[in-house]
Amino acid sequence: MSLDTVVDLLLGLFLLLSGALAGVLFAVETAIVPAVSALPGDVYVRVHRLLDRRFDPMMPRVNKVSLAVCAALVVLAGGVWPRVALACSGLCIIGVAVVSEGWNVRMNRVIDGWDPAAPPPDWSRVRARWAAANRVRTLLAIAGFGAAVLGSALAR
User: Transmembrane segments in this chain: where (predicted)?
Assistant: First the structure.
């Protein structure tokens, strides 16, 4: 298999993974966040727990594999500008991981510890902080996907 073929396959995989990351976070931002923002505390805690069980194991894996593929592309892709665009995409994906682990996952663990029948008095402020962090990581993921598309276009 030639290097060009390997790069093409990796570019396709990277577009799929970075697009999935951006798409999932965009869907959360535009559909789930507004929906859970309207819920009363007891229902919010229950719904948040249900969602977290699905997203938590999957999304960190998508992020890590995406970043590994990106790193390989930064090394293997031909030309300076494709590599610069792909490196920018990788930095955005690192940003998604930092915001996720530093804010959202930590708040998820706090929320998971709440009694749904008696959320703490500041529960709505925690929900608002979670939503703000989610907005940041969503913007980073979308920028990362855009840079991945640009890097892929420049690589050809």
Answer: 66-99, 136-155
Amino acid in the structure at residue 104:
N
Longest dimension (CA), the chain: 61
Contact 78, 8 (CB under 8 A): no
Q: Please tell me the distance from the alpha carbon of residue 50 to that of residue 112, in angstroms, as a whole number.
A: 10
Q: What is the mean pLDDT of residues 58-86?
A: 97
Helix, strand, or coil (residue 40): coil
Q: Which two three-digit tokens encode residue 16?
A: 């799929």
Domain count, the chain: 1
User: How many whole angstroms separate alpha carbon 10 and alpha carbon 66?
Assistant: 10
Give the tens place of pLDDT for each residue, 54-68: 888 899 999 999 999
